[in-house]
Amino acid sequence: MFWRGFVHPENKMGPTIKLALKGILLTGQRPSEICSMELAELDEKMEWWTIPGSKTKNGRQHRVPINELMQEVIKQAIAARPDGAKDSDFVFSSIRKFGEPVTRDGLSRGFRQNLKSFDLSENPATPHDLRRTFTTEGGRIGIPREHRKRILNHIDNDVTAVYDLYEYDSEKSYAMEKWGQHIQSLI
C-alpha cells in the first residue's frame, strides 16, 4: 500500500512533502492546488476547502469536502511548519523559503527520490498520478463517476451541464468520507 511508503526506513522525505502528498491522495486535487492551500480557504470547522478560481485549472471556484483523515493531515502540516513559517498563510509551508508554500517541483523531486520506498521503482509515478489513484480506486469502492468528476473539478461538457447548477456538496461530502474510510482501512 502506497501509504506505508511514508514510514519506510529508506524514505528521506521531509514531513511537509509527505503530508502534501497525502493531501493529494486524500482529496484528489492537483499538486499545485495542494501546495498553495491557505488557511483562509478552509472553513471554521475544517470541513470544506474552497479553492479560488485563480488557483484552479478551469478558473472556477471549487469546494472540496475534507474528510477526517485529511483534517489530521492539515493539523500535522500546520504543526510541522518551521519556526520562521509559523505565521505562514500556507498549510504546507516551505522549510527553505519562509512564508511561501512548498512547490510542485519540490513534491515531484521528493517523490522521485523515494520511489523505492513506495515500491514504485519499476513503475515510476508522479504526484499527479495520485489523482488517478483517487479516481480509479474511488470507482472501485462505489463512488459514482459523476461525483468523482466533480471532486476532481473537471468540466462537464455534456449539454445538460449548462442547465445543472446544483453543486453536489452532499454527494461530494459523502464520497470523500467514504474515500477517507477506505484509505483508513488500508493503513
From TrEMBL:
SUPFAM superfamilies: DNA breaking-rejoining enzymes. Keywords: DNA integration, DNA recombination. One of its GO terms (molecular function) is DNA binding. This is Tyr recombinase domain-containing protein. PANTHER family: PROPHAGE INTEGRASE, PROPHAGE INTEGRASE INTS-RELATED. It comes from Terasakiella brassicae. Residues 1-176 form the Tyr recombinase domain. Signal peptide: none annotated. One of its GO terms (biological process) is DNA recombination. Belongs to the 'phage' integrase family.
